[in-house]
From TrEMBL:
GO terms for biological process: negative regulation of DNA-templated transcription. The gene is ZNF271_15. One of its GO terms (molecular function) is DNA-binding transcription activator activity, RNA polymerase II-specific. The keyword DNA-binding applies. This is Zinc finger protein 271. Keywords: DNA-binding, Metal-binding, Nucleus, Repeat, Transcription, Transcription regulation, Zinc, Zinc-finger. The keyword Lipoprotein does not apply. It is found in: Nucleus. PANTHER family: C2H2-TYPE DOMAIN-CONTAINING PROTEIN (PTHR24393:SF151), ZINC FINGER PROTEIN (PTHR24393). One of its GO terms (cellular component) is nucleus.
Length: 389
């Protein structure tokens, strides 16, 4: 081998090897080389000339070796193999980076926080946390990102493109790793295991979050209110409270949401989908939380307890409504007569006095009522008449 490759800078791509006779000198930078073709390649770098062209995509290169490396994209050739795990790579530099996984070597260190990385590109991306640099900008909403991959993922929100499809359930995903997670669900695979309690997870990020239970570590902090979080995604969701950002938009009614899961739940309003089914009475629900609350009717569980009178409730919202009795708080006010109520449902019923609305209709005589209780009392008339006849 007569020369080495260094991809860290354009002018240092071809470095002369020590110990060889270097008869060919570059007039531009003063470097000397043992072979004339290496000198020619160096001159191409200085002049900007790229005489070696890919016949597939027409991309040009200053050095024939770089063209050869590029062509492996199309040929699929991966001549550099890891001795440890037999994984192959198209470039020697990629193999070298990969081998650091096995060795644990992290030679690239952040001079601000001393965090180390196995790859120089990872260090470069990390440094943007400290500098606040976000060089990748969305052309649609002008939102900026520190990583190109994050921008790419974000752009799927605007295009509504979901390129990764499960061949089992046909569900589509914006991200490849979401598809991978979905596949773990189908096969029941849980490859990520806690080394403390041996609990297994199908998603690596869930394991990572779980591990913070033992460490009590909350390393990610909100720069607005200083609240700490165990994972970056939770901080991101929290920050939307401060910014008011609602990036997830319903394509039916254009209502926007701060979280994708909230949009997913909202869409069931339009589709009528009720995927959560009670295994006791087969009643279906659009929300998992609604099913959970419903199941307490069957098991008699009332986990929400009033700390004033010790009365228990099966839903948190019922406890909240009950608390207004003790506080005498009446937060729901009629905008017509200014009468106040402790519960929103009572205000809604009251407002029918002003509107004249009678939504509860008898299916026998078609008489309408403003209260469901009044309809129920009325229906007894028909029951009594039928029983007498």
């Amino acid at each position: 081998m007569f020369f080495t490759l260094n991809f860290q800078g354009n002018l240092n791509v071809l470095q002369p090897v020590h110990g060889e006779e270097r008869r060919y000198s570059c007039d531009e930078c003063g470097d000397s080389f043992s072979q004339d073709q290496i000198l020619i390649a160096r001159r191409h770098i200085h002049s900007g000339e790229r005489p070696f062209c890919c016949i597939v995509c027409n991309k040009s290169f200053s050095c024939k070796r770089h063209l050869k490396t590029h062509q492996r994209i199309y040929s699929g050739e991966k001549p550099f193999c890891c001795n440890e795990c037999k994984k192959s790579f198209s470039q020697q530099s990629h193999l070298k980076t990969h081998q650091r996984i096995h060795s644990g070597k992290k030679p690239f260190c952040c001079d601000t926080c001393n965090k180390s990385f196995s790859d120089q590109s990872h260090l470069k991306t990390h440094k943007r946390i400290h500098s606040g640099e976000k060089p990748f900008c969305c052309e649609v909403c002008k939102m900026s990102f520190s990583q190109q991959s994050t921008l790419k993922r974000h752009q799927h929100i605007h295009s509504r493109e979901m390129p990764f499809c499960s061949d089992v359930c046909k569900k589509s995903f914006i991200l490849k790793n979401h598809l991978k997670t979905n596949q773990h669900v189908h096969c029941g695979e849980k490859p990520f295991c806690s080394d403390v309690c041996n609990k297994a997870f199908s998603v690596q990020s869930t394991l990572k979050t779980h591990q913070h239970i033992y460490s009590a570590e909350k390393p990610i902090c909100c720069d607005v209110c200083n609240k700490s979080f165990t994972c970056k995604s939770r901080l991101k969701r929290h920050q939307r409270m401060h910014s008011g950002e609602k990036p997830f938009c319903c394509d039916v009614c254009n209502k926007s949401f701060s979280e994708q899961s909230h949009l997913k739940t909202h869409r069931r309003v339009h589709s009528g989908e009720q995927p959560f089914c009670c295994d006791v009475c087969k009643k279906s629900f659009s929300h998992q939380s609604s099913l959970k609350a419903h199941q307490r009717i069957h098991n008699g569980e009332k986990p929400f307890c009033c700390d004033v009178c010790k009365k228990s409730f099966n839903t948190k919202s019922d406890l909240k409504k009950h608390m207004h009795i003790h506080s005498r708080e009446k937060p729901f006010c009629c905008d017509v007569c200014k009468k106040s109520f402790s519960q929103q449902s009572n205000l809604k019923t009251h407002q029918r006095i002003h509107s004249g609305e009678q939504p509860f209709c008898c299916d026998i005589c078609e008489k309408s009522f403003s209260h469901q209780s009044n309809l129920k009392r009325h229906q007894r008339i028909h029951v009594d008449v039928c029983s007498k006849s």
